[in-house]
Each structure stands twice: as C-alpha cells, then as structure tokens.
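A common beginner's mistake is to predict each chain separately and then try to dock the pieces by hand. The better habit, illustrated here, is to supply every component at once so that their relative placement is modeled jointly.
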Amino acid sequence: MKRQVFDCQPGCPVESTLQIISGKWKSVILYHLLQEKVCHFGSLQRQLVNCSRRMLALQLKKLEQDQIIEKITYQDQPFKTEYRLTLQGQTLKPVILAMAVWGEKYNRLQKNK
Amino acid sequence: MKRQVFDCQPGCPVESTLQIISGKWKSVILYHLLQEKVCHFGSLQRQLVNCSRRMLALQLKKLEQDQIIEKITYQDQPFKTEYRLTLQGQTLKPVILAMAVWGEKYNRLQKNK
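With all components supplied together, the output reads:
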C-alpha cells in the first residue's frame, strides 16, 4: 500500500496524517486501542456493533501495514489474536483525542439544531 | 450535504470530525486559514500549488456549507472575496495542529527509510 509524503508546502503534513487515519472505522479502532491498550478481535467486533467482520479485518490489516498497530497471535488453545498500538501508533494519541473532543461538541450542536 | 452524528458508542465522535475535515486539500485550507486568519481565493490558490481552481472552489464551498468557514464578498472594484474561519471552525485548531505535528514526524520517518 503506497503511502505518500505530503510536504510540498506548509499545511501538507496534515494530509500525511489524514491518509493514515482516514477510512471508515479506523479512527474508532484507534480510539479503543488507546483506551484499552490491548484488544482481541472479538472484543473489537463486539464494541464496533455496526462494523462488519470483513471491514474490521480489512482496517486492522491496513493499520498493521502502516505500522500503526501490531498483531500478536497466541498458538495455545483456544487460538487467540491480540492487537495493540506500536510506538508510532501511540504518538497518534493527541490527534485522536482532539478529534474525539471536537466530535462530541459537534454532535451536541447538531442534535440541538 | 447530509451530515451524520456518529455517537453510537465510544470513539464514534472521532468519525464525526473526520467527515468534516476529510477530503483532498480541506485540512490544508484549514491550516492556512488558522495561520493567516483571512485568505483571498487568489492567495489560497497561489499557496496550494497542486490544487486546481475547481477543486479549491469545491472544498471551500463544502467547508462553508458545514459552517466551518465563512465567505465575505466586497462589491467595490476590484471585486474581492475573502474567507475566514467561523467560531466553530476556530475550535478545530487543536485537531489541525496535532495532525500537522504528527504528519511532520511521519514525513521525516518516511524519508529516512
């Protein structure tokens, strides 16, 4: 998955960030991993009620390819897969939390219209 | 332009924010408006060198519809149009700046690979 470096002028690095976090459910997955440190596939699926199994697997794969999350597989029975943020992924914390705060205010405003 | 309220569960408000700032060049436009307070269409166009006139006009229109920016038109000659952030648009500052900081680090990492 070819990633771009957006730095042709001031402001462009924001696009570099957007390319990593954009994509249905990705930012919600990142939010949960920030809160819970480690998540099993099953627990993510239970929490992202409107997200299909296939979509969840796809977005986790992309985040893994971008080295934002890492996947740990336990061979013992029952078979278990865990996901957690990489060091680079953890540096997204200010971005995701700022977006969560803004989004909550936006939601309140929209509901009061 | 129908906007959604994403609040079915924790983390969803991040998606509410993404729907507003996602879209080619939007976050770069917001970055410039945060830095320069007021921008003419022409100055934005000069600064966003790889952005077509049509794309710039489209993204400005969407930001205006979302009440993130406002457009001021001066009838005197020569005809002049200015853009600035609304109060709600200004509250995006922590989000855009956090994304710019993260994007700059990401760009440096990618170039050193």
